[in-house]
Amino acid sequence: MASAQIPAGGTYLDTFKRSFTDVPIDASKGNAISTSEFLEAAEALTTMFDVLGSVAFSPVKNDMLGNVKKIRERQLASPLESETLQDLVRNELKTKSHKATEGLLWLVRGLEFTCIALTQNVANPSQELAESFRGAYGLTLKPHHSFLVKPVFSAAMSACPYRKDFYAKLGPEEKVQAELKEYLAALEKIVEILKAFLATKEAKW
């Protein structure tokens, strides 16, 4: 189980290779977000779905990791043009390709879904995870999913563990809550920056 990896006195977030709190954002360059650190943080986040403990969450996790792969492939193909996510998108679109850009769009949707669900849940101590995730799904991914995909994701929401069991796996409750709030605030900021950028003309294909 995931809990075995947690260091003594630490939380599950300590097992992440990279946290969203450590992703560089260059305000002097229009809030440019560093590609490598962002992708590492996104990969780390997907391990949260393992803690949720249901195979029903596999499509959610695999979808996000598939989009990470698309972005990383573009980064590896043109490293100098892809140091920030914004530059990666601009430079890819110049080549008339949009595979990584589309991957980023879907990855941001997945991150926003996770961020809203966990933020809501942390803020409402009486709310079960299934309710938080269902609400977040309706706001983020559901409007973009086909009628074939919606039932797959809806099944994942219904398969959420009980709140108390989920948080118990993450570490000491007070510490988990404090670290999650900081982590989710950093993730929310990055999601908002990327959503705004992806809505601009220069990110359209």
Task: Please characterize this protein's 3D structure.
The chain has 205 residues and is an all-alpha fold. It has one domain (25-203): Orthogonal Bundle (Glycolipid transfer protein, GLTP), CATH 1.10.3520. The chain has nine helices and two strands. It has helices at residues 35-46, 48-52, 58-77, 85-94, 99-123, 129-139, 150-158, 163-170, 173-198; strands at 25-26, 32-33. A hairpin with a 5-residue loop joins strand 1 and strand 2 (32-33). 33% of the residues are buried.
Question: What does the main sheet amount to?
Answer: 2 strands, antiparallel
CATH top level is Mainly Alpha
- Describe the global form: globular
Measured by DSSP, the beta-strand proportion falls in under 5%
Classified in CATH, the superfamily is Glycolipid transfer protein
User: What do the pLDDT scores average to?
Assistant: 93
Tally of strands: 2
| CATH architecture descriptor text | Orthogonal Bundle
Q: How much helix is in the residues?
A: 55-70%
In sequence order, what are the helices and strands, one letter per element?
EEHHHHHHHHH
Kindly name the structural category: mainly alpha
Return residue spans where pLDDT drops below 50 for at least 5 consecutive residues.
none
CATH topology: Glycolipid transfer protein, GLTP
Q: How do the strands line up in the largest sheet? A: 1-2
Total count of helical runs of at least 4 residues: 9
Number of domains: 1
How many whole angstroms does the radius of gyration measure? 17 Å
Distance between the termini: 42 Å
